[in-house]
Specification:
This protein is an alpha/beta fold. The protein contains nine helices and 14 strands. The chain has one domain (about 10-285): Alpha-Beta Barrel (TIM Barrel).
Length: about 300
């Protein structure tokens, strides 16, 4: 039986599985310990989800069904920090095609994407190519019944609210929405909370992380212990009527973009502690007199 959690109405808690462990057993166990019934998938034993062979994928599907875990999203490599705008676009098209079949089997329609790091182009040409590629990807997503979730991370529209708005407005499709990561700004030099008002109407999913700068380095923390204004962001989202999933991405010991994949540590316990910290923080977001959720003074 799932443990009772204290979350705001309309909100589901989840975690990115491979931050709890490389193997599926640990990823499932961590969610069971938290009492959460939703998981977000990125890799199994270091293999990106799109690259899992058919036998492993079948095992993953059966294991998740038996565990009672619903898959919210697949975090793809499409347009991410490892694929520059001048790179081979076919890599993204092939990955999306594979994920369309796997999302259908898992019962999810969400795929996380980014918007391509630059490779020496001027800003205008960089943006033109990003929008052009995203039009194609979104058309494929529409045909497959998927929604691409663009994350405020690496890429042309990752750190600038105006560019993110331009991307969703020019593509103009319900198959492109935004994934708002509260903690990415520390590493990329911006405050996510300041972007939020310009983007909130397109945000369909949220990642929870927190961080601070120590001697010029980004140090990730439990939610509420860094400088990312996690509670303020969550309150703002709730006040604008956001309902959906808050997914923890602790980054304490696992950071794929830095090649950090901890071994020999109790990642499950660390992951559970992080999830419990989010639950405690969420419990402080009390309803005010208007019936809306707000952070206490």
């Amino acid at each position: 039986m799932w443990a009772e959690t204290r979350q705001p109405a309309g909100i589901t808690f989840a975690g990115i599985g491979d931050e709890a462990g490389r193997g599926l057993v640990d990823q499932v166990r961590a969610h069971h310990l938290l009492g959460w019934s939703t998981i977000e998938l990125r890799s199994i034993h270091g293999v990106a989800f799109a690259d899992l062979d058919a036998v492993v994928f079948d095992h993953v599907t059966k294991t998740l069904n038996q565990a009672g875990l619903r898959v919210l999203s697949i975090d793809s490599r499409i347009a991410n920090w490892g694929r520059q705008i001048t790179g081979d676009f076919d890599l993204d098209l092939v990955e999306l095609d594979r994920l369309a079949l796997r999302c259908a089997a898992l019962g999810t329609r969400y795929v996380r994407v980014m918007s391509y790091p630059n490779d020496g182009l001027d800003d205008e040409e960089w943006g033109r190519r990003v929008v052009q590629r995203m039009h194609v990807l979104v058309k494929c997503a529409e045909q497959a019944g998927l929604v691409l979730l663009h994350e405020n991370c690496a890429g042309w529209a990752g750190t600038d609210a105006l560019r993110a708005r331009r991307l969703v407005e020019e593509v103009d499709s319900p198959s492109l929405r935004l994934l708002f990561d509260i903690g990415n700004g520390v590493a990329y030099g911006y405050q996510a909370y300041e972007m939020l008002p310009d983007l909130v109407q397109w945000i369909e999913h949220v990642h929870i992380k927190d961080a601070r700068r120590v001697n010029g380095e980004t140090v990730y923390t439990l939610p509420g212990e860094g400088i990312c204004r996690v509670a303020d962001c969550l309150s703002e989202l709730l006040e604008h009527g956001y309902t959906g999933t808050w997914t923890i991405e602790p980054h304490l010991s696992v950071r794929p973009h830095e090649g950090l994949a901890a071994e020999g540590q109790d990642l499950v316990s660390q992951f559970v502690r992080y999830g419990q910290a989010l639950e405690r923080l969420a419990a402080t977001l009390d309803r005010d007199g208007s019936g809306e959720m707000s952070c206490p003074a």
